[in-house]
Design goal:
- The chain has about 400 residues and is mostly beta strands.
- The protein folds into three domains: about 1-80, no CATH class; about 90-100 and about 195-395, Thrombin, subunit H, CATH 2.40.10.120; about 110-185, PDZ domain (Pdz3 Domain, Roll), CATH 2.30.42.10.
- It has helices at about 1-25, 145-155, 345-350, 385-395, and strands at about 30-35, 45-55, 60-70, 70-80, 85-110, 110, 120, 130-135, 140, 160-165, 170-175, 175-180, 185, 190-205, 210, 230-235, 235-240, 250-255, 260-270, 270-275, 290-295, 300-310, 315-325, 335-340, 360-365, 365-375, 380-385.
- The strands form five sheets. The chain has a 17-stranded mixed beta sheet that branches. A four-stranded mixed beta sheet has the order 1-4-3-2. Strands 6-7 form a two-stranded antiparallel ribbon.
- The chain starts with a helix and ends with a helix.
Length: about 400
């Protein structure tokens, strides 16, 4: 009997521990659109209490406490409820210019010194590809030219580097090597800017905030999201369109030279590029077309349309199908599986191609999301991000 009792207690404690562990995994900050629900499985002894609430423009925040039997603190969270404001879908190809916060290390190479010896200054030094150098000997490094100047002025003396790695600031030391050209180098390949083309998704009338791409800009060498200091979006002229084929993604090639500035980029996130428009007229769009953002349970399998611009940068609507919906996905931009069905778009692009990321999707008179990825094995099929995920980031950035 005692063994049975102990077993029951152990099972109860295990269930209790598992449940509490799941509660603690809930983010400390949750953002919902008005009308959207957040469900928590109830349990005997668990009390969910509203401890306070605050309000600001378009956002109501409720502070919630999880307590066991009213005493044991488990978790405190803030739930932000956003008014479901309207957005104006755009769907135009734009150019992007992003400037890094510091200089990004994208590679390393050996150096031949003045004695014809092969040197690796970075060897046995806490420096990695993907790190961002923000300071050398307490001097801020904003661009490559500043980096070159500081390294050359060192005359080979040991340097203290301040780096950012995955959001963490750390320090390291490195000694430059004198080359046969009488220059001092670290053996690090770096960049301080990134450029490209993509699609601007929508803007919000009241604030002039815009969202583009539906995904962040990652460095092609390190595959890490670029930590930007500033940036801008500009008009772009489409030069050519390469159709997508099985195993070979297509792309839109455009120019950003001598183009008009549209807005300032303020944030590079996993869910898109965010900023504010400064020159709306250069987009030449119908600003009267505004749509409510669909809640996830409003989105249905079946027909929808995608807005994108290919010829003369004039947006058109093309037919697609929503094939799968992943309603619980909040971690990445693969919220829906979509398929291009419009023959006009298939003839021009073969389906989803690079440059169409960010093209807005409309269903039943609501904005439901944007194109993000293509399946390399079948360019007709790809992924899209939920519209609510994109809108919620406006508050967080």
């Amino acid at each position: 009997m005692k063994k049975i009792k102990n077993s029951v207690i152990i099972i109860f404690l295990f269930i209790l521990y598992s449940y509490i562990a799941n509660i603690t995994l809930i983010p400390s900050e949750i953002t919902l659109l008005k009308g959207e629900s957040f469900k928590i499985r109830r349990m005997y002894g668990l009390e969910v209490m509203e401890t306070a609430s605050t309000s600001s423009t378009n956002v109501n925040t409720t502070h919630i406490a999880f307590r066991l039997f009213g005493k044991l603190k488990i978790k405190d969270i803030n739930v932000n409820i956003l008014e479901n404001k309207e957005v104006v879908p755009i769907g135009k190809i734009i150019g992007l210019k992003l400037y890094t916060n510091g200089v990004l290390i994208v590679g390393m190479s050996e150096i031949e010194n003045m004695n014809h010896e092969i040197i690796k200054p970075y060897e046995n030094v806490n420096v990695q590809e993907g790190d961002t150098i923000i300071k050398i000997n307490e001097e801020e490094i904003d661009d490559i030219e500043t980096l070159k100047k500081v390294v050359n002025n060192s005359k080979g003396e040991n340097l203290s580097l301040t780096l950012v790695r995955d959001g963490t600031v750390l320090t390291s030391n490195i000694t430059p090597t004198a080359t046969r050209e009488n220059e001092y180098k670290l053996g690090l390949w770096v960049k301080d800017a990134a450029t490209g083309v993509g699609t601007i998704t929508f803007y919000e009338k009241d604030t002039q905030e815009f969202v583009a791409l539906g995904h962040g800009i990652a460095d092609g060498d390190t595959n890490k999201l670029i930590d930007i200091d500033s940036g801008e979006i500009v008009t772009s002229k489409v030069l050519s369109i390469k159709k997508g084929e099985e195993g070979n993604p297509g792309e839109i090639k455009g120019t950003i030279l001598n183009q008009q500035t549209i807005g300032n980029v303020e944030k590079n996130t996993p869910f898109g590029i965010y900023g504010k428009l400064t020159n709306l007229t250069s987009l030449n769009i119908d600003t009267s077309r505004a749509y409510k953002v669909a809640l996830r349970n409003d989105i249905q399998l079946g027909k929808a349309t995608v807005i994108c611009s290919l010829e003369n940068n004039v947006p058109e609507e093309y037919a697609i199908e929503i094939e799968k919906i992943y309603p619980q996905n909040n971690s990445d931009n693969k919220s829906m599986l979509i398929k291009v069905t419009d023959n006009r778009l298939l003839e021009k692009t073969g389906g989803i191609i690079r440059g169409l990321s960010g093209a807005p999707i409309i269903q039943n008179g609501k904005f439901i999301g944007a194109v993000t990825n293509v399946l390399v094995s079948n360019p007709q099929i790809g992924y899209a991000i939920f519209g609510d995920l994109m809108v919620k980031q406006l508050v967080q950035y």
